[in-house]
Structures are given as C-alpha cells and as structure tokens.
Amino acid sequence: QVQLVESGGGSVQAGGSLRLSCAASGYSYRSACMGWFRQAPGKGREGVAAIDSDGDTSYADSVKGRFTISQDNAKNTLYLQMNSLSPEDTAVYYCAATQPPCPPLAAGHGLKDYEYDYWGQGTQVTVSS
Questions:
Q1: How far is the first Cα of the chain from the last one, in angstroms, to the nearest whole number?
Q2: Are 127 and 12 in contact (CB under 8 A)?
Q3: What is the DSSP letter of 99?
C-alpha cells in the first residue's frame, strides 16, 4: 500500500524559506514521477513542481527561480525547497506520485492532478506579510 506523508509546513514571514518533505512508503517505482501541488482557500489545486526518476524537473511559472524540487531515492523522500515566499504561496501543499510511466516533463506534463495516482494528506504553509 502506497503512503505519502508530508511534513515541514508552518508559518513564515514574507521573504522567508521553508523545506517540505514527503516520505514515501510502499512506493519506489522507477520510470515514475513525483510532484508537489497546492490548494489555496477558495481555489483549485495547482501543480507546483514535478520530478522524474532521472532527475528532470518541471515547475509552474509562479514558482520558477524560487522553489526547487528534489528527491533522495535512497530515503524514498521527496523535497520542496521554497525560498522568497510571499503571501500568495499560502496554501495546503500536497505530495503526489504516479504509477509508471512518468508523463514527459519536457513536454509540459507533470503538473496536472489527473496525471497522479497517489496523494498525501497535505501540509499547511502560511506566509504572512
């Protein structure tokens, strides 16, 4: 049974940083990918970043240059380093994983929620001005 457990959320002032982690159990698919999504109050779920098993990445325009997705395959853990946070980044952040194959990130895939099969419970990130 696949389980994804996020941690690292919290409250931070604008301009600050947070690092989210997602521990995956029962999941170590090669040729699959993992991603981060977020959902702000009253808004739909938005793809933030994705990474495949080769380390290729994809980012939403709103976070490019500020957020970095990475993974430690030995620890089965996904990370999201978030820098220069703004109040607009306030949301519940979710970790997600696909079954293989991973959609081609270079072709703009990997940031749609329907591409993912497994989801974590979410972690709250609140950025104050």
A1: 40
A2: yes
A3: P
Pick from 67, 99, 61: which is nearest to 84 by CA? Answer: 67
Count of CB atoms situated within 10 Å of the CB of 65: 9
% of residues, the chain, pLDDT over 90: 82
* Cα-based angle 123, 74, 78 (whole degrees, multiple of 5): 20
Tell how far CA 8 is from the center of its chain: 12
- In angstroms, the Cα distances linking 25 to 1, 2, 75, 107, 112 are 8, 6, 10, 29, 23
Q: Could you read off the pLDDT of 37-90 as tens digits, one per residue?
A: 999 999 999 999 999 988 999 999 999 999 999 999 888 999 999 999 999 999
Q: Residue with structure tokens 């970095």?
A: 68
How sure is the predictor about 4, in pLDDT bands with cuts at 50, 70 and 90?
very high
